[in-house]
Amino acid sequence: MSRRKQVPTDILTDIPELEPGQRFARVLGSRGKNIHEIAFPDGEELLVNLPPKFRSLVWVKRGSYVIIEPAEEEDKTKVGGDICAVLFPDHIKKYKQQGIWPFGDGINAKDASSDEEEEEESGSDDDLFVNNNRPIIEESESESESEEESEDEK
User: pTM higher than 0.85, yes or no?
Assistant: First the structure.
């Protein structure tokens, strides 16, 4: 198998090992030109570079988790390291099982919830999309009762 085909399968299936010097981080946002702002579990923020091997394979968006290799020398640029691995929910579950996951909230509040909570939430209408372009007409109970009474009288 060529190296080009092997990289996508490695990124998606293999769980990256946390080597000495590497740290977990959460992506706060993209700053353009493959530069991302990240936050470590202790609250420290840093700009990091996305290496070319990831650029056309994975999308790093706000809220994603990554493994960072901090820069060894102090450069004149503001970029303080490189992204070594982009973490997927399966990777995060494995790190939690190993007990080395530093973020307390998990993936997201909704992703970490159990199936029972998801069933309870599916019954509420609060999550439904509301179209603000149409006026909302709500009937009060007194109007609906008076209409029913007028229909009964006929």
Answer: no
